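Notes to self after the Tuesday call (sharing in case useful).
The group wants a holo model before anyone commits to mutagenesis around the pocket. I volunteered. Ligand is 4-fluoro-L-phenylalanine. Logging inputs and output together so the record is complete.
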Amino acid sequence: MKRDSFSGRFGIIAAAAGSAIGLGNIWRFPYLCGQNGGAAFVLVYLFCIILIGLPIMLAEFSIGRRAQSNAYRAFRILSPGRPWYLIGVLGIVAAFAILSFYSAVGGWTIEYIFRSISGGISSNPTEQFESFTTDSYLPLLHQFLFLALSLGIVMIGVKKGIERSSKILMPLLLVLLIVLCIRAVTLPGASEGLKFLLKPDFSKLTGDSILLAMGQAFFSLSLGMGCLITYGSYVRRNEDLTSAAGMIAGADTLIALLAGVAIFPAAAAFHIEPDSGPGLVFITLPGMFRQMAGGMIFSTFFFILLCIAALTSAISLLEVVVSFCVEEMHLRRGRATALVAVCVFLPGALCSLSLGIVPGLQLFGKSFFDLMDFTSSNLLLPVGGFFISIYAGWILKKHITVRELTSYGAKKFSCLRVFFFLIRYLVPAAILVVFISGLIRN
Ligand code: PFF
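Result:
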């Protein structure tokens, strides 16, 4: 079967950035940052992006392009008869776990689009958010809508659906975020929020927050589950993987930081605690929109773009599972996509309901929603990342990786040595240390 491929370098950057940039940047990063001391968390996060995230991204791209296949098959092709393909299986489990809560939050963005259009943002956004997420059927309905939209896009296919939407809309999101940042920092009392984001207080940094920062780096860059292996397989031989990876990680980090600059000053101005949890962006920004001239228009645009950013990420998650079903189980694309979406809706519904009418839906002291969120990012993705780094550093022949990173000798990659040091030693050691210290603490 002829594989689809991205058209040119901008294609891969746009699509992978579309996968990376999503709710992770604008919803998850600010709320984790708020709960873990602000600036100190940001610093650890940045270290994780550069020292752990970037090398793993390069490793995933190289493996994918070399093998020209989905993550599961890639390891079967490159290391036949060995159990490395289990990384692909782990990725599929992680994709389901992430999609289940991701689609719930994606649904919230849809609700906020409707609310913005109808002028229904209340003067008490905290109460409004809580009453919506604990409603008996509204969150489910919107989650369903979100999944149906993602499904539609994946059915159209790689090139048309994913590429076209990401190319135009992600730059637009950036522009809108910059406008929101300007508004937020000019609010009275905003400086407290900026200080929170920029002035590190290391006493607030615990071992757990380091684990959370690392998990967030994996989550935000879409690493550790083979998503970028699949995307790498769509990249042509002559495209430069290294500069693409740099730009994707740079754009992703920029969007997350901008989200912080928009949210924390607004939170400070409206006396909303930065550690208010998963509702943070849905509480602070609507508060700010209400006070802005033309706030309704900004609010509508913002939630539409956030929803689209979430969709481009959700379709990359679906793509991991769908390409497996198509290429390994020989299902038709349309059928595979529908099947996967139905299978996601079940745990997804549990996530939504665990916040509201079924609060008893708890495991290990966490709601089902939190459990999926926590285990996927802080356990499944780093474990996947650990094995990917071992594979790329120690198992895959070095000259193969070098060839991919230099685009078959056509491009120079001056950081090859640094890359091999990181992927062989630092990345696996760092993941292990963070894990083991977590185990000891608990
Ligand atoms: N990176 C996405 C975000 O930040 O919203 C979430 C995600 C997409 C995680 C794809 C993992 C993945 F494979």
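Two things stood out.
The two ends are 49 Å apart (CA to CA).
The chain has one domain: 9-441.
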